[in-house]
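Is NDP placement plausible here? Inputs below.
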Amino acid sequence: MISLQNQIVLITGASSGIGAACAKIFAGAGAKLILAARRLERLQQLVETLHLTSAQVYLLQLDVRDRNAVESAISSLPASWSDIDILINNAGLSRALDKLHEGNFLDWEEMIDTNIKGLLYLTRYIVPGMVNRDRGHVINLGSIAGHQTYPGGNVYCATKAAVRAISEGLKQDLLGTPVRVTSVDPGMVETEFSQVRFHGDIERAKKVYQGVTPLTPDDVADVIFFCATRSPHVNINEVILMPVNQASATLVHRL
Ligand code: NDP
Ligand code: 8X3
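Reply from A.M.:
I modeled the complex. Tokens:
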């Protein structure tokens, strides 16, 4: 296991769920965190909860869909924060479960712009520095939705299939460098994900997890942390994890 002490870890979507859990576990290991999300106040609350000092954390209010904003945020990091060691491309969302032929264009664009294009922008602006410094690790949040399409999942599943292809492609393109690439692909994790999917319909969101013990954000952060702390010659390419009572995107045993 390698030490993360003072390593610089940038986490997108750190204001909630899996991203916030990553912030907690990486902070506990002594990493320096750059936390990015649109909701700055949520990032500030997290910093307070984790008792982080300004030497340990740097906040970025950032919409990953905005390419100019991503470029400017990365290029204007102070020198002591600019050498990013680990990029966790976690920001992402699903919108609705509409049939494709009845789908909403804005929902599609939001998913594609966030889950695919946002992830690409961060990767494009950060990975060249990793290559120049001969060190680095990109960890992308995929999903079982990238492996299996389910009814109504159409465009969300397509974005996660794209993440899977991008992770594979990046790994190939970085061959010959020490920069590592991992895709962590969870099944059902209880976060704000379903509330966002159903545009704030909390009752409908709760039903997703009814009668089943879902993964927690900490379960996923544990796996991400494991991938990040292997010996430098080890690359964990892909991890699929799901609750014991889930066998596929559509097969869930509910009590
Ligand atoms: P949450 O809704 O709890 O968190 C999503 C995070 O993404 C929030 O911090 C949100 O921050 C951020 N985000 C969304 N849009 C943007 C944007 N345009 N710019 C910057 N940040 C953005 O969901 P999860 O923690 O569950 O989701 C994290 C990742 O895990 C996603 O990629 C999701 O697809 C993936 N995943 C989730 C699973 C689940 O069952 N929950 C299963 C498999 C994968 P803010 O709104 O403040 O910008
Ligand atoms: C989130 C898991 O099954 O809702 O990516 O698509 S699922």
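Short version: The longest helix spans residues 105-133.
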